[in-house]
Specification:
Mean pLDDT: 93
Shape: globular
Number of helices: 12
Largest sheet: 5 strands, parallel
Low-confidence stretches: none
Helix content: 40-55%
CATH architecture of the largest domain: 3-Layer(aba) Sandwich
CATH superfamily of the largest domain: Tetrapyrrole methylase, N-terminal domain
Number of domains: 3
Structural class: alpha/beta
Strand content: 15-25%
Distance between the termini: 63 Å
């Protein structure tokens, strides 16, 4: 598969973070598809790159993707860039990649800056397991679905948010996770005035009652302690007999042995104890 599409990460702040490979790629392709041509033009001018630019953003992502696919099928090479960070992460680059692969066009993604990874590693929370949610949906029902899905999440959780939505988003998250959950609010990452606030949701809302949010934010949220989740799950079964517990799983299609094993696991007790109680 001949590579015609190149995903080129751009700095999230510090211009020194762009790689030599990215600069060479931006010079060598036939056209650069940019989320905001004005921002990208400043970057290209800084590095003395004169490749042709075209606009590719949220509001033209489908029709423009089709146009770019046509160019690549004719033999042209296209670089896709976002305003900051890696294309395809919470931006329309994802659509271009899908359409390119469907057209049997080779795609390569160059390594480089990504805001959520930078924020995660500096947050102080576990980076072994994490879930990246991007921007919360604006539609109320869809937003609530996403928030409900993280209620018992034990992995570190990461969101992006714009300054004018920050306080509302923090309030919505607090309603689900509680005021005491620890978070890291990261803004101006890699820039001169980089700021990382490590505090609770309640403290964050109080802080931004007095101060207006500025800049794009990465919200990193500590996952719920797994022991707390397990204990809460065990308590749900206290009012259910072992026989009822096992029958619940059998009604779902499990055989008797597997149902006993699952019930024992739920309650944190040996399988033998369940066997004996049923006998």
């Amino acid at each position: 598969m001949d590579t015609r599409l190149f995903l080129c990460p751009t700095p999230i702040g510090n211009l020194g973070d762009i790689t030599e490979r990215t600069l060479e790629t931006l010079k060598s392709v036939d056209i650069i598809a940019a989320e905001d041509t004005r921002n990208t033009l400043r970057l290209l001018n800084y590095f003395d790159i004169h490749t042709k630019l075209t606009s590719y953003h949220e509001h033209n992502k489908y029709e423009k993707a089709a146009e770019l696919i046509g160019l690549m099928l004719s033999g042209k090479k296209v670089a896709c860039v976002t305003d900051a960070g890696t294309p395809g992460i919470s931006d329309p680059g994802e659509i271009l990649v899908k359409q390119a692969l469907e057209a049997d066009i080779g795609v390569t993604s160059l390594p480089g800056a990504t805001a959520f990874v930078t924020a995660l590693t500096v947050s102080g929370f576990s980076s072994r397991r994490f879930v990246f949610e991007g921007f919360l949906p604006r539609e109320k029902k869809e937003k609530q679905f996403v928030l409900d899905s993280i209620k018992d999440e034990v992995r570190t959780i990461i969101f992006y948010e714009a300054p004018h939505h920050l306080k509302g988003t923090l309030s919505d998250i607090q309603d689900v996770l509680g005021p005491g959950r620890r978070i890291a609010l990261c803004r101006e990452l890699t820039k001169l005035h980089e700021e990382i606030l490590r505090l609770t949701l309640n403290e964050a809302l109080a802080y931004y009652t007095e101060k207006e949010p500025k800049g794009e934010y990465v919200i990193v949220i500590e996952g719920r302690p797994i022991q707390e989740v397990e204990e809460e799950q065990r308590k749900k079964y206290e009012d259910m007999s072992l026989e009822e517990h096992v029958k619940t799983y059998e009604a779902q299609g499990m055989d008797h042995k597997e149902a006993i094993k699952k019930a024992a696991s739920d309650r944190g007790i040996p399988k033998r104890e369940v066997y004996n109680a049923l006998l």
